[in-house]
Structures are given as structure tokens and as C-alpha cells.
Specification:
2 domains; Rossmann fold; 12 strands; 364 residues; 6-stranded parallel sheet; 38% helix; alpha/beta
Length: 364
């Protein structure tokens, strides 16, 4: 799957501009605004973007309660959209014939939520939807009927709200203290079995991140987990199969940790986070899911843009050394670090522990 995404990004960088000129020449699309009965949102990218798109989807459904809302996304973030009751169909453009099945539909509006790459804008244009909305970050904006300014200074929830303004008429309100992922079902028994042995409140740790520069290290998370275990908390390790190595390092320090890396879905992770008193995490997709379900977080930032991506609200703490060279990530791309991710290395274990225990004990 990672290879597929890498190939798509390479295609985008090599021929994206040419594709935009070609489709505009070959396909002529009118831009009259119709009644809105069916909407498509295109969401490439990772888990965090998908999670922070959910409030905008909710606002669209409130404005158009009878409209059908479809999602065109990747296999890696599709699980996020199963957490929403406002979505009718989920199509995967990187698996099977999902893209072609999606484009066979007729949409009144297509919203491209991608921030930079061009292929999704081409897809929006090929759909022939009379309303096509997207961010005006490069020549991709020539394929939209409504071009939306994108700022690195805006919290990403608000950036997505700006995208739907042409349809809903205003910028929706967002309560930073209110969960926006509703888990209506009870926690599945198969997940509860992991926690039946032992006692104590659950604290989750997520050591993973999409870029190596955002990782804090299994040994350091392990030292934090060891102290939490000694303080009477049970620690659950969340992540994908790629986080197994860090999970093993954590368990060397804290053998009693419940290792769930690689064996849970995104929906499972949401349930576990709902059970948890706290999540300690690097800048990752799991961080956004915790925020969405209302679980407090201690998040570690370095290369990522805190103002754009960090959870908001009184129960969320960010540790960030704010070095001169950070943040360095732009439009999802983190350059190779020449300083060996010093922005993360300078975040001390005792500082993370203090913030975590303050939240657990009711202090902020």
C-alpha cells in the first residue's frame, strides 16, 4: 500500500501540471450551482486529515440532511470514515475498481480536501460535477469552480470548514471541548478481553508517526510506561504493524504493558482510546482519534506545525521545544533532518511524565 501511495505522489510531481492542462482542454464542464442531492468528498492522505474532516462532514449533513455524502479515500484512512454516521458510501481509489465505480456516479458537488497534490483535483474535474471546490495552493485551482485560500496558520478543522462555506453559507462553529466522534455501540467483548486481567485505569501510548523525524523512540516511551505502571496505571500500546519494534522496546522497560500494535483496526483504536484516561503520543493519526472521542492527550511536537495540527482544549497538552529549524513539515512532506530530529530528542521523559500525571490527577 505504501508503494502505491509513493507511486501516485511521484506521478503527481512528474505530470500533475500537464494533466491539469490536458483535462481542461479535453473536458468542458459547466459550473452552474444545482440543488444539492449528492456530494463527494475526496480525501487522500493519512489518518489525521481524515479525522479532522469529520466535523465538516457533520456540518454538511446538518445543512443537507437528505443529501447522500460519499467519500473517495485511501485504504489506509478509510477506517476513519466508518466512525461517521453521515457517510453513505466509501470508495477506495487505491484498491480495485473503486475510483471507476465512484466516477460512474453523478454528483452535484465534489469537494477536494487535498491540500497540495494535483491528481485529486483532476479527479474532481473529471467527475463533471457542476460545483467543484478545492484549495487554491497551486495550478490545481484551475479545475475548481470555487477556489479556497489555504493557510498554514489555521487549525485544520477550520481549513476544512472553509472548504464547505460555498455550500453551507458560513463558517461552522467548532467546540474544542466537545467530542466529535460518537461511538454509539458498546465496546466489543473481543477488545475488553485484553483488559480483564489486572486492575487500574488505562493509559494508552502511541509511539508511531508517519515520518521518522516525528518519532520519540520506544526506549523513552518505555521509561514513561514503567513509571505509569509503578503508579498503578495499566498501559496499552497502540499502533500499526510498523510500530512493533517500538512496542518491543517499551515492553523491555514495562513488561506488563498490553501490546495492541498491529492487531486492531482504527475503529478498535477509537474504542480503546474511549476507555483510556489519557493518550501519550507523538504527532500522529491516533492523536487525532483520541481528541475526536474526547480522551485527553499529551502530544509531542517537533517537525509538525502545532498551530495547525495539535489538539485544542483544556485537557490537551503539547510539548514542543520550538527550535529555530522547526516546524519543517509543509503539505505533508517532512524533509530529511540534518540534526537527527533534535526537536524530539530535547523533549525530556520527566517533562512528559509530569504533564501526564498532572492530567491524570486533574491538574493542567
Amino acid at each position: 500500500m505504501i508503494k502505491k501511495i509513493t507511486i501516485l505522489k511521484q506521478i503527481d510531481s512528474l505530470i500533475g501540471k500537464q494533466l491539469i492542462h490536458a483535462v481542461r482542454f479535453i473536458i468542458q464542464v459547466r459550473g452552474n450551482i444545482p440543488e444539492i442531492h449528492r456530494i463527494l468528498l475526496i480525501r487522500p492522505g493519512g489518518i489525521g486529515d481524515a479525522v479532522l474532516l469529520l466535523p465538516a462532514i457533520r456540518s454538511l449533513k446538518e445543512k443537507f440532511p437528505n443529501a447522500e455524502i460519499d467519500i473517495l479515500c485511501e485504504k489506509r484512512n478509510a477506517g476513519v470514515f466508518t466512525l461517521s454516521n453521515d457517510i453513505n458510501r466509501i470508495y477506495l481509489y487505491d484498491k480495485g475498481l473503486g475510483l471507476f465505480k465512484c466516477l460512474k456516479n453523478r454528483y452535484d458537488a465534489v469537494i477536494d480536501t487535498e491540500q497540495w497534490h494535483r491528481l485529486s483535483a483532476v479527479v474532481a474535474y473529471i467527475s463533471k460535477a457542476p460545483v467543484r471546490i478545492g484549495f487554491s495552493t497551486n495550478e490545481r485551482d484551475r479545475l475548481f469552480t470555487h477556489r479556497i485560500h489555504y493557510s498554514q496558520e489555521d487549525y485544520e478543522v477550520n481549513s476544512f470548514f472553509h472548504l464547505i462555506e460555498p455550500l453551507v453559507g458560513n463558517t461552522p462553529d467548532f467546540n474544542t471541548e466537545c467530542p466529535f466522534i460518537n461511538l454509539n455501540e458498546d465496546v466489543p467483548d473481543r477488545l475488553l478481553t485484553y483488559f480483564r486481567k489486572g486492575s487500574g485505569e488505562i493509559v494508552s501510548i502511541s509511539p508511531g508517526a508517519s515520518a521518522v523525524e516525528r518519532r520519540w523512540g520506544g526506549e523513552r516511551f518505555g521509561q514513561v510506561a514503567k513509571t505509569l505502571n509503578a503508579s498503578g496505571y495499566r498501559v496499552a500500546i497502540l499502533g500499526s504493524q510498523t510500530d512493533k519494534t517500538d512496542a518491543e522496546k517499551i515492553k523491555r522497560y514495562a513488561p506488563e504493558c498490553i501490546d495492541l500494535t498491529g492487531i486492531t483496526t482504527l475503529k478498535d483504536a477509537a474504542y480503546i482510546l474511549k476507555l483510556s484516561r489519557l493518550l501519550i503520543t507523538s504527532d500522529s493519526g491516533i492523536m487525532h482519534i483520541a481528541y475526536g472521542v474526547g480522551t485527553p492527550t499529551v502530544s509531542l511536537f517537533g517537525s509538525g506545525i502545532e498551530k495547525k495540527w495539535a489538539p485544542r482544549g483544556k485537557r490537551h497538552v503539547v510539548l514542543n521545544k520550538n527550535l529555530k529549524c522547526s516546524p519543517c513539515t509543509r503539505f505533508g512532506y517532512t524533509p530529511r533532518c540534518k540534526k537527527n530530529a533534535d526537536c524530539m530528542k530535547q523533549i525530556a521523559e520527566d517533562g512528559v511524565l509530569k504533564k501526564a500525571l498532572d492530567l491524570l490527577e486533574g491538574e493542567t
